[in-house]
Structures are given as structure tokens and as C-alpha cells.
Design brief:
The protein is of the alpha/beta class. About 65% of the residues lie in helices and about 10% in strands. The strands form three sheets. A six-stranded mixed β-sheet has the order 6-9-10-3-11-12, with helices on both faces. Strand 1 and strand 2 form a beta hairpin. It is elongated. The protein starts with 16 loop residues before the first helix and ends with a helix.
């Protein structure tokens, strides 16, 4: 087992804070009308909240403590004041409720778009990218990181606006009520600003570390669970427990650091609020005694003070959510900025009418997955149109790499590959892959009907598929299934044997009717009896097509017109089956080994 945590990217983000916000807010562009509505509702919510302390002041000064009015007048005025208080609470509740619904709809829609963009991009990224990326890390981007941005889109955007607007309005009101106390309160604003900025920088670093460690955990768990049979078979259970404990403990440590930071900042905010209220009670009480301030004004002042520090505390909490979301956004946009095949493919505008039926030619091709460690060395050979060529060699000789280069999953380090005298770099990748049919040992089976698994993007009708199956003797394979072509296969559907999967792969290729066919270890995982069942459809595939066969089992390559022998990324022999046997070289050795394994 590898510890994928060692491969977690420690990139220095190329996105500035301003650029990151611009890209995040860019996803709200399509929802600017409902988002503007949410902001408008926030104005009503803020207005209702700020009017309540003023009503309290009016109730105390005009009715409760006013000796000029009799009891009846006081109660009538107080009743009207209370009714207005109730109306404001109701309006505030309704507008807040509507705002939450609107924001949740916006947030869910944005998350849907972001998740869709991310998944669509992953399907287009070059194959070399996936060699360096654990699956668990990519799943983390699509699930945890996207979800981590949810609350920022659903509530933070507007509520931060609400809180900032409320604080500004409260400062104006306090200065209006009593300019001395209002100016005194303004002294707390710079201190709160400094604390918030310091907290934001520290929180961003902590949340970035938490997201990275969570990605490591997911990657490790994904690999461990997918390979649990091997773990149990080779007695790696205890070792993996220890490795997971280290990763899990590290995640706990990083999370507790963030909690300690948050636990320090919140009491400081509370302390500032309590200190401000204590000073106002002392100063305001003296002003009441000196008849310079009414009791209602002091109560309103204290209420506004509570409302002022409440959003300040909430801002700190929400800012921590924002920092966590931005740490996730960095990782999401870093992944979205990875070059896709379309971006790397300079031949997208090539002539689509170009004929790709012709010879396949490798000219002095050298390739390496890891720079400085080539797996192919100066490879040169030609597959003539209509010719069947087999490539054999021991494991690691570079056979499958040739297919990866032909399909342009990777590009050669040097040399050139051409099809019909046209360089592969001048052929759009999607056009090239439509011209090449591949029957592989491992294949993807969709959780869908057999018919849809065969047709895929070929556009063939049910009648055409039935005709192809009859031509290749595959009807028996379909008839043996419970619902024929309508049988659901794949995960959660009808289980398929290895031989049936190979028959499905051949049917897929026939539907596409490619001019060039590749058989990559197509029969290496099946027995000889099943291989005989594949003879008829395989022979049908060979009709008028250029064929490249990659195989360990040499019995499948004897039909080839020419055989190329690879050894450590170099061509060491080539010729017909008979000619190579007569040379008593590497091919003869491979045939002898294959014959011995067949008779064990």
C-alpha cells in the first residue's frame, strides 16, 4: 500500500485573493436577479431589527416614565407601541424566511453548476494527470470541497452584507442619539478590524491544512477499501491501522489548532462587547443622574450596543466559514485550471473530411512517463493498410504504451506517429479515436441495458445492432440473457463473465466500424474454450481492416501477417510466425514458455 498522503500537492496557489473572489462571484453572475432580491430583502430585515430599540426608547420615555400622562393614556400609547413592535417582528420574520429560501435555491444551483463543471473537466484531463492523482483526492474535490463552499453561497454572501450594513447603521444611530458615547464606541472599531484581519490570515492557513489532510485521509481510505482483499491476504491489516492512525491523528491535531484559534478570537470579541457595555452603564448612568440622558435613550443605546457586537461575533464565525470555503475554492480552481485535452489539442480545427484510411507509421519514437526514464527507445515500424501486425514481449516491454501513444493519451518525447500519411498531432483526438477500435482486457461496463452498452455514441439503431450480432454469431450470447438486449448489466445488474465482457467489447467495436483495430490482451484472461467462441466475431472484425494485436498468449498472434518483438522498449525482432521460429531468438523463447504454461 502506498500512503497517498505523501503525494498530496503542496502547490503555491497562482490565484490571488482578488482573483479567487472574482472567480467565486463569477458563479453568481447567472443568478444576479434573485441575488439582488436577497439583498433587497436583507434591507427589510436590517430595518426591522434596528427599529426595535427605537420603539423601546419611545415606549419608556413617552409612556412608561412620562409623569405628564395619566394611566389610561400611558397604556393606550404603550399598546400601540407594542402592536407596532409585533408588526416589525412579523415583517422581519417573513422577509428573513423568504431570504433563506431564495439563498438556498441560489446556493444549491451554484453548487450544481460547480460540481458539473468540475466533473466535466475531469473527463477531459489528459491521462498523465491521473497517474499523479489518487482517486480519493479527486473525489474530495467533487464532494467535500464543493460542499464546503455551500454555506458561503447560501448565507454568507448576503448575511455579511447584512451585518456590515447593520454595524454602519448602528454607528450612525448611536452618534445621533449621543455623540459622546457614539464616538467612544468608534474606538472599538479599529481594534475589532485588526483582530478580524489577524484571525482571517491564521484561519486561512489552518483551513488549508485541514483540507489537505482530509484529502490525504480520503485517498488512503479509497485505496485501502478498494484493495481490502489484498490487505487481508498479505496480512497488512495492522500496518494499515497504524498508517491510518497517523493520518487520523494529524487531521485531529490540525482541526484542534483551528478550534483553539476560534476559541481565542470569540472570547476577545465578547470581552470587547462586555467592556463597552460596562463603560456605557457607568457613563450613561451618570448622565441620567445629571438629567443629560433619558432612561429610554440609555436602554436604546445598550440595545444598539448589543446589536453592534452581535454581528461582529457572527462575522468572526462566518469569516471562518469563508476562509474554509476559500481554501476549498483554491483547490477546486487549481484542478479546473489543469490543462484539458481540448486545450492541449492544437489540431481541433483540422479538416474533418480528411481520409484516415491508410498506413500507420512510427518514426523514431521515444517516450517516457517519468522524464529521464524512457520506456520506448527509437521505435520505428509501419503497419500497412489491411495488414495484421502483432506486438509481443514480456511484461514491461512497452506494448501497452504503444497503444497509449496511438490513441494520443500521451504524446511522444521525440519522433512522429502518422496515420494515412497524416501526423497524429494534426488529427483531432475525438476524430482519431472514432477511427480506432479497441478491444481491451479490462473494459468499462455501464449500469445500463446491454443495447446501450453496445451502441454508446455510435448512433446505431436496434435493428442494425441485431444484424451485426447475427453476422458475428453473437446472438447466442444475447439470447442467454434474461431480457436479451434489454437486460441491465453492470453494477447492480446482470453479472457478466470475462468471456461475455469480451464479446460485448467486440460488439461495441463493430458498431463503430473503425478502419483501424487494436486488440489489447483481448483474450489473455479467458480460457481456450472461450477463446474459440471469440474466433468468429474476431475474424469478422479483421475483414478489410488494419489490425494491431497486443498479446501475452502467443496462440492469438499466429494469424498476424507480421510479428514485432519488443524487449525493454526496443524492437529486437520482426517477421512472420514461421520466420521468427526459425531464427531461434527471443520469439522462439516466448513461444516455448507459452507452450509450457498451456500444458501445465
Amino acid at each position: 500500500m502506498r500512503n497517498f498522503g505523501y503525494f498530496e500537492e503542496d502547490y503555491a496557489t497562482s490565484i490571488s485573493e482578488k482573483g479567487l473572489w472574482r472567480r467565486v462571484l463569477g458563479y453568481l453572475r447567472s443568478f444576479w436577479i434573485p441575488f439582488s432580491g436577497a439583498i433587497l430583502l436583507s434591507l427589510f430585515v436590517t430595518a426591522c431589527a434596528l427599529a426595535l430599540p427605537w420603539l423601546m426608547q419611545q415606549a419608556i420615555d413617552l409612556y412608561i416614565s412620562n409623569p405628564k400622562l395619566d394611566f389610561t393614556q400611558r397604556m393606550e400609547g404603550l399598546s400601540g407601541n407594542v402592536m407596532l413592535y409585533g408588526v416589525l417582528i412579523t415583517v422581519g420574520f417573513v422577509t428573513a424566511f423568504l431570504q433563506v429560501l431564495l439563498l438556498e435555491w441560489i446556493g444549491q444551483s451554484v453548487m450544481h453548476s460547480l460540481r458539473q463543471d468540475l466533473f466535466s473537466h475531469l473527463l477531459k484531463v489528459e491521462m498523465g494527470f491521473f497517474n499523479k492523482q489518487p482517486v480519493g483526492r479527486l473525489v474530495t474535490r467533487l464532494t467535500n470541497d464543493v460542499q464546503n463552499m455551500h454555506e458561503m453561497f447560501t448565507s454568507i454572501m448576503v448575511t455579511i452584507f447584512n451585518d456590515l450594513l447593520r454595524m454602519i447603521c448602528i454607528l450612525v444611530l448611536l452618534v445621533y442619539l449621543n455623540w459622546q458615547l457614539g464616538l467612544f464606541l468608534c474606538l472599538f472599531v479599529p481594534l475589532a478590524t485588526v483582530l478580524t484581519i489577524l484571525f482571517s490570515k491564521l484561519a486561512r492557513n489552518h483551513f488549508r491544512a485541514i483540507r489537505k489532510q482530509l484529502s490525504r485521509l480520503n485517498s488512503f481510505v479509497q485505496e485501502a477499501v478498494s484493495g481490502v482483499s489484498m490487505v487481508q491476504l498479505f496480512g497488512r491489516t495492522d500496518a494499515l491501522k497504524k498508517e491510518f492512525a497517523l493520518l487520523n491523528n494529524s487531521y485531529l491535531t490540525k482541526t484542534l489548532r483551528q478550534i483553539r484559534l476560534f476559541g481565542t478570537f470569540m472570547p476577545l470579541t465578547e470581552l470587547m462587547g462586555s467592556l463597552a457595555i460596562a463603560i456605557i452603564l457607568w457613563y450613561g448612568g451618570g448622565e441620567i443622574i445629571r438629567k443629560h440622558l433619558t432612561l429610554g435613550e440609555l436602554v436604546a443605546f445598550l440595545s444598539y450596543m448589543r446589536l453592534f457586537f452581535q454581528p461582529l461575533k457572527e462575522l468572526s464565525q462566518k469569516y471562518s466559514i469563508v476562509q474554509s470555503a476559500l481554501a476549498s475554492a483554491e483547490r477546486i480552481f487549481h484542478l479546473l485550471d489543469t490543462d484539458s485535452e481540448e486545450k492541449m489539442d492544437v489540431s481541433l480545427n483540422a479538416d474533418v473530411s480528411l481520409s484516415l484510411t491508410g498506413d500507420v507509421c512510427f518514426k523514431q519514437v521515444t517516450f517516457s512517463y517519468i522524464p529521464g526514464h524512457p520506456v520506448l527507445h527509437d521505435i520505428s515500424f509501419t503497419i500497412n493498410q489491411g495488414e495484421t501486425v502483432a506486438i509481443v514481449g514480456s511484461t514491461g516491454s512497452g506494448k501497452s504504451t504503444l497503444i497509449n501513444l496511438l490513441l494520443r493519451f500521451y504524446e511522444p518525447d521525440s519522433g512522429e506517429i502518422s496515420l494515412a500519411e497524416c501526423s497524429l498531432t494534426d488529427i483531432p483526438k475525438n476524430r482519431l479515436r472514432r477511427e480506432i477500435g479497441v478491444v481491451m482486457q479490462e473494459m468499462l461496463i455501464l449500469q445500463d441495458t446491454l443495447l446501450n452498452n453496445i451502441v454508446l455514441d455510435s448512433g446505431k439503431s436496434r435493428k442494425e445492432v441485431t444484424g451485426l450480432l447475427q453476422q458475428t454469431q453473437l446472438t447466442q450470447f444475447v439470447d442467454n440473457l434474461p431480457q436479451g438486449l434489454d437486460t441491465v448489466v453492470g453494477e447492480g445488474g446482470q453479472a457478466m463473465s470475462t468471456g461475455e465482457k469480451q464479446l460485448l467489447a467486440i460488439a461495441r467495436v463493430l458498431c463503430r466500424n473503425p478502419s483501424f483495430l487494436i486488440l489489447d490482451e483481448a483474450s489473455s484472461a479467458i480460457d481456450s474454450k472461450t477463446e474459440m467462441l471469440l474466433e468468429q466475431p474476431l475474424e469478422h472484425c479483421f475483414n478489410d481492416k488494419t489490425v494491431l494485436i497486443i498479446a501475452h498468449r502467443l496462440s492469438t498472434v499466429q494469424r498476424a501477417d507480421r510479428i514485432i518483438v519488443l524487449e525493454k522498449g526496443r524492437i529486437i525482432e520482426q517477421g512472420s510466425h514461421v520466420d521468427l521460429l526459425s531464427e531461434n531468438g527471443k520469439y522462439s523463447e516466448l513461444v516455448a514458455l507459452d507452450f509450457e504454461s498451456e500444458n501445465i
